[in-house]
Amino acid sequence: MGMLNFFRSGGKIAWGLVLAILLLMFASTALFARTALVRHERDVSRMVFNDNLQLLDEVRKSTGALDDSLATVTTNPGSASDAIPTNRPYIVVSIEDHRLWYKQGDSVLFTTQVATGSGKVLDAAGGQSHWKFETPRGRLVVQSKEEDPSWIPPDWHFVEMARKRGLGIVRLNRGQTIAASDGSVIGVEGTDMVRKYKDGRVVPIEPGVEGREVVAGGNIVIPPYGTNQRKYKGVLGTHRLNMGDGYALHGTDHPESIGRSVSHGCVRLRNEDIETLYQMVSVGTPVFIY
């Protein structure tokens, strides 16, 4: 009753106060949304520049722009979308049998042997990071296709290589340098890691090659994202079918590994087999892994 009398006696002033409060609330909400959008665009631009596609996927998923197919299977294992399609082709992968089938209904359109995750565990020094190399089980989807794909090795690759060779690891950030045993310092210029010598010479380091990582002071150097030294050609074979969450069906430069549990989680095929599958499979094709 008191509130009603206030509006009656206050007239335009009371209603003006209410309108001002509502406008302030609306402006605050719009400012918050705009700030979030600007931050998102800034982060996406930085990740695209650095070629950190895996992290970009995470940001896209967090905003609902990309389906997290693995998370969907985990949280909704009995959903209708997990059913085998009856009117379109699909892929089935058996981890135990190391075999892939491309099917439509009961018909097998293509089948071949594959390599799957090793199941091994890798811990970084100090226990700060922990990786388990498993092929995920459940329903995923072919989200994109690539020819002649480059591999952008995650940090675990450099940790693993250092462990095999009895070396430490050191991260090179843009704007920093690391002293090398030949008297040079290693830094970054543009898209290349370079060696800078005292006589003024600046020599680009060769692009990334698995097993020939840059070593300085007894440490394997982790290159920054976006440099050619963090792009490995040929490791993933000739073609790749991306399934999101960092997983893919791809070729290999180690055909002898096919039929074994040796990968870091992806499904490997011989190059001739992934080329055949690449021509047959379209984006959106379901992939069932068990």
CATH superfamily of the largest domain: L,D-transpeptidase catalytic domain-like
Q: Work out the strand percent.
A: 25-35%
User: Sheet with the most strands?
Assistant: 5 strands, mixed
**Biggest sheet strand line-up:** 3-2-1-22-7
Total domain modules: 3
Rg of Cα set: 26 Å
Number of strands: 22
Estimated structural class: alpha+beta
What is the CATH fold-level name of the largest domain?
A: L,D-transpeptidase catalytic domain-like
Give the CA-CA distance, first to last residue: 67 Å
Mean pLDDT metric: 83
Write the H/E string, N to C: HHHHEEEEEEEEEHEEEEEEEEEEEEHE
- CATH C-level of the largest domain: Mainly Beta
Q: Regions with pLDDT < 50 over 5+ consecutive residues?
A: 35-56, 58-80
Give me the number of helical elements: 6
The CATH architecture of the largest domain can be named as Beta Barrel
Shape: globular
Helix content: 25-40%
